[in-house]
Write a structure and sequence with these properties.
With about 325 residues, the chain is α/β, with parallel strands linked by helices. The chain folds into 2 domains: about 1-135, no CATH class; about 145-335, Rossmann fold (3-Layer(aba) Sandwich), CATH 3.40.50.150. It contains 9 helices and 14 strands. The strands form 3 sheets. Strands 7, 8, 9, 10, 11, 12, 13 and 14 form an 8-stranded mixed sheet that branches. Helix 1 (about 40-55) packs antiparallel against helix 4 (about 95-105) and helix 1 (about 40-55) packs across helix 7. The longest helix is centred in the N-terminal third of the chain and has 15 residues, at about 40-55. The termini are far apart. Mean pLDDT is about 90; it is low at about 1-35.
Length: about 325
């Protein structure tokens, strides 16, 4: 076994142990052959399968709630939910040795003093386990999963038609497309971030969903006809933050507008866009709605405010001084 270690800016030592891919857990499941060529994917699939066998479940909360929960009980992890849910540091005896070996093989272990810490989490949604980035999600390539994911999935499950081909744009963990598997014969999970594509691939296997994993800037890398586009893009105004947070534009609405415009141009006649996002409300005006309306000229569309006030803590930041609230909204557009 070989070990590579490096110290990050935060003073945490990253450990990547190069070991033969463990086959004990993999042998119990039917894993697609190509998955075995990527030790990260194979190892994360094996961890997810074993967590499922152990009836692991965890609901990921907002960052603010997560911080409060950690403050309520300080100290290292006591069980698997502490390790893979609350992202607490842990000693080697807290998780099974085979699982730690798999975590090492995936390059997802960091040193925290005398303890270790998982750099990934597993969360539950729709009866499935999804792997994503550990808390706090501050790395530039972090893959976010939380209450916003729950709202997004609930919205698209309620509204999605049954189609031939679905594309989840900016898929992140892939939760949206994976949990709509019953609505489409073919599913494409597309993202510009390589870390997201790894997690989406793992999560599709865990859910036993066949999906095409595509590296794409919005729809630029996706070929062929498209019947349904779903998207939950970044919508914060945070140009210095992780990729998953900053939506660009004046107040974070830029990427969502681009997705709407590009989707309308690519969808087949009768095709549909379901776009969940957060819109900054300034002096009672919906800035995303104002910006996206011109792109919807050749569609039949509806617009719904799902939650009037999300991520209110962001309003304390200076760049949000003109914003009175951020609303979670759903745009539904059908191409004529």
């Amino acid at each position: 076994m070989g070990v590579d270690a490096r110290v990050t800016a935060a003073g945490v030592t990253k450990i990547a142990c190069h070991v033969p891919t463990p086959r004990v857990l993999l042998s119990r499941e039917r894993v697609p052959r190509d998955i075995l060529t990527d030790p990260r994917v194979a190892s994360l699939v094996a961890i997810g399968r074993e967590l499922g066998r152990l009836d692991y479940a965890f609901t990921t909360v907002t960052p603010a709630t997560h911080i409060r929960a950690l403050q309520h009980r300080e100290g290292p992890a006591l069980d698997l939910r502490d390790v893979f849910g609350w992202s607490r540091s842990f000693s080697r005896d807290v998780i099974p040795a085979a699982m730690l070996e798999l975590l090492d093989a995936a390059g997802c272990v960091a040193r925290d003093g005398d303890l270790l810490r998982s750099t990934i989490r597993f969360s539950t949604l729709g009866g499935q386990l999804f792997v994503h980035s550990a808390f706090p999600t501050t790395a530039p390539d972090a893959v976010f999963f939380g209450p916003d994911t729950h709202r997004f999935v609930a919205a698209v499950q309620r509204c999605a038609p049954h189609v031939e081909r679905l594309v989840d744009v900016g898929c992140g963990s892939g939760a949206g497309g994976i949990l709509l598997a019953g609505h489409a014969k073919r599913i494409v999970l597309a993202d510009i971030a390589p870390s997201a594509l790894v997690f989406a691939r793992v999560n599709a296997v865990l859910a036993r969903v066949e999906a095409e994993i595509v590296h794409s800037d919005v729809l630029a890398g996706v070929g062929g006809d498209i019947d349904l586009v779903i998207a939950n893009p970044p919508y914060m105004h945070d140009p210095d933050g992780p990729t998953y947070r900053d939506g660009g534009g004046a107040l974070g609405e830029g990427l969502a507008v681009r997705i709407a415009r590009d989707s309308v141009a690519r969808l087949r006649s009768g095709g549909q866009l379901l776009l969940y996002t957060g819109s900054p409300i300034v002096d009672g005006c919906d800035r995303f709605l104002d910006a996206v309306t011109p792109a919807l000229a050749d569609t039949h569309w509806s617009y719904e405010e799902l939650d009037p006030d999300v991520f209110g803590e962001q309003l304390a930041e200076r760049r949000y001084v003109t914003v009175e609230r951020i609303a979670a909204v759903l745009l539904r557009a059908t191409v004529a």
